[in-house]
Amino acid sequence: MLTTERKKTILELLARDGRVLAADLAAAFGTSEDTIRRDLRELAAEGLLQRVHGGALPASSAVAPFAQRRSIESSAKRNIGRAAAAMIAPGQIVIIDGGTTSAELVKHLPLSLAATVVTHSPTVAVALVDHPSIDVIMIGGRLYKHSVVNVGAAAIEAMSHIHADIYFMGVTGLHLTEGLSTGDMEEAYIKRALSARAAETVVLASMDKLNAASRYAIGDVTLANTVIVEAQADAAITQALQAKGISVVRA
Asked: What SUPFAM superfamilies does the entry give (predicted)?
C-alpha cells in the first residue's frame, strides 16, 4: 500500500473509531510500528490528528487564531453562551475564561445582574464595561495573543487570592480518556489554576471540541463538574460523561 493510501485509511479509521493505536495499525497494514509512527508524525504536522502515547486521537479544529474564530457565526456557541449565562446567580463571584464561546456568554448577561467577574481575558473585561452592577477584576500577565488572554506567573499569583463560586472554562479538546486540553502550555497552567480557585468548573464544549485533543493537558475530564454541549451532541459521549459523575447541559 502506498504511503498516501495508508494515511488516508488511518484518517478514515480515526474518524470512525475516535482513536487509533500504532500497534493495531502496523498489524493491519503488515508494516512496522516505526513506519506507522512516521505516518502519524507527518499527519500530526499537518494538523490532521493529535499524537498520544501508543497512537493518535482526532485533532481539535478549534485552534485557529482568535480573530478568525470570532468571525465565524455559530448558533451553537450562542446557545452554549446563553445556557452558561443562565447559571450565574446574583452576588456570585464568577471566573470567565477567554475564547469565542466565553464572548458569547458575556453577551447574554443581563444588565441588571449584580455580580463579580474575574477574568484574564481583556476581551471579556471590555465587554463588561457597560454592565453597571458587575464588578470586573482583571487578571494581568503576559498576553497570549492567539486566545487574547493573560498568562504567566503573575496571573497565577493574582488568582491565588480568589475564591470563586463558578469558573467557565474554554477548551480546545475534551476526550473521555485524554481529558481536557488546549493548544498552549501556559494557557493549560492558567486553566488548571483557575479551576482550583472555584467551587464549580463548567466546561463550554461545542461539537468541534468533543472527542478531540490538543497538545497540552489541562487535566482529567472529571476536573469539570458540568459540561455544556450542543443539543445534538453525541449521546454516547454525554452518557459517558454522566457515568463519570459529570452533569451535562444540552444547549
From this structure: NagB/RpiA/CoA transferase-like, Winged helix' DNA-binding domain
Which pTM does this prediction carry? 0.82
User: What is the arithmetic mean of pLDDT over 115-123?
Assistant: 96
Q: At what angle do helices 3-17 and 22-29 cross, to 10 degrees?
A: 130
Residues spanned by CATH 1.10.10.10 within the chain?
Answer: 3-58
pLDDT per position as a tens digit, 166-197:
999 999 999 998 899 998 899 999 999 999 99
The amino acid sitting at 231 is A
**What's 66-250's CATH class?**
alpha beta
For the residues of 60-75, what is the DSSP string, one character each?
PSTTS-HHHHHTS--H
Domain ranges in the chain with CATH number 3.40.50.1360 = 66-250
**pLDDT digits 0-9 by tens, 49-66:** 888 888 998 887 665 554
Cβ–Cβ < 8 Å for 117, 128: yes
Fold observed for domain 3-58: Arc Repressor Mutant, subunit A (1.10.10)
Q: At what angle do helices 3-17 and 33-45 cross, to 10 degrees?
A: 80
Query: In angstroms, how far is CA 112 from the centroid of its own chain?
Result: 29
Q: Are the C-beta atoms of residues 66 and 100 closer than 8 Å to each other?
A: yes
Sign of CA dihedral 164, 159, 204, 98: positive
Per the rule left: phi > 0, alpha: psi between -120 and 50, beta: everything else, 54 is left
Cβ pair 210, 139 in contact under 8 A = no
Question: Alpha-carbon distance 59 to 141, whole Å?
Answer: 29
From CA 102, how far away is CA 108, in angstroms rounded? 10
